[in-house]
Amino acid sequence: MTDxxxxxxxxxxxxxxLLDPSRPILVRQAHLVTLDDTLGDLEGDVLVxxxxxxxxxxxxxCDGAVVIDGTDKVVIPGFVNxxxxxxxxxxxxxxxxxxxxxxxxxILGAVGKYYEPEDVRVATQLGAIEQVDxxxxxxxxxxxxxxxxxxxxxxxDGLQQSGVRAVFGHGTPGDDVGRWYYQSRERHPDxxxxxxxxxxSSNDALVTLGMxxxxxxxxxxxxxxxxxxxxxxxxxxxxxxxxxxMYGDYSPDTRTLAKAGLLxxxxxxxxxxxxxxxxxxxxxxxxxxxxxxxxxEMQMGHGLPVTxxxxxxxxxxxxxxDVVCSVSADMFSQMRFAVQAQRMLANAKAHEGGAMLDHLPxxxxxxxxxxTLQGAKALGLDHRIGSITxxxxxxxxxxxxxxxxxxxxxxxxxxxxxxxxxxxxHTVMVAGRVRKFAHAAMQAEAGSIRRAAEMGHRVMAAAGIxxxxxxxx
Length: 473
Ligand SMILES: [Zn+2]
Fold this sequence. Notes:
A hairpin with a 2-residue loop joins strand 16 (433-437) and strand 17. Helices cover 34% and strands 20% of the residues. By secondary structure, the chain is an alpha/beta fold. It is globular, with a radius of gyration of 22 Å. The protein is built from 16 helices and 17 strands. The structure holds zinc ion (ZN). Zinc ion (ZN) is lined by residues 83, 85, 142, 241, 270, 322.
């Protein structure tokens, strides 16, 4: 028997060289799924210099480069997780069986008020490292736990300490659901202006600023207008949950937002399950992005994932993991849920007419694009990341089938989407900095896993969440 995670005997020395930012890196003879229209898929090399992709091609040479052997490996653009709540990393394991009502009651309505700033920092850092370990190089961290300015600073610290590329989506406090949700009349906290001026003033940094707003599901239209105008005045994107669940009569708020000039390429709409087809088309025409988080949407009754309806309207979804306290935190799972849920819907529709499908409506490559390049577009970052294109930042994920428990590598795209897991993630680079190598991710600060568990138990107990007796002491 071998170890579950095989170790390259030269990995330690190689890793030390890879961590030297002055050394170019040459990934040699790998299967490259570039998602670049000109380059396509090829077997070849990627040269990384000064944080950027310097060249893509065959038999590249570079003096002084550290070489990563690409044998039995697939290089993809790093995953872009366009919707995740990293602060919930502390309370994993409490909400996997929750209905949407349970979630609103215990998570948004109770647990958030017990989070101290340090809880937010530790959760965000650990959650971000978990993302990188799983091949994610960019996250939109939808942080609706901004109970004070210190909470916001702590979340930013956690992201910056993790090494991930992130849009920090500053949200509302998590300590008073009655005030901040349910047709709220409260405008977005103006602490975001301080953050824009003092901490995240650059749009070119590794961690940039976004605004996580409540949108029509949770706030009145005047608040929505003020929130989006505030985001635009700060020159940042905004994201909202939209059209979730089956709560009473449906009102077509998307048209209202569009008519008011409040939709555009700077706006991300997440879920959108209850939108009408023409509202989806309208949002896409105006350039808004649509994020689907299929696993939790199927769990909690958000409605049917809109993957196919977005595609029918000429668009493409982005993917996110969303509530990591409930569901998988990795993009492999979300790609598979998205693809197979859409196929299930299409198959069921064909069956209703007594027929079988000749062609499936969505493919592996669609899922991979949604999980990478389309997410980069949604975050306004596709000029820098999202494809393996010379000149872009080197955000790369290398998947390996080079150990004896792997199945043979026959089709790189299908392998990445249908047959890969976190165990296949060999190397992760963010802006050319190696954050995982030879299956070993960077470590969180010493003792943080134990601290996170204690923090999670504390906030869950305070919120009245029932823990197993062995853990509830
Ligand atoms: Zn969410």
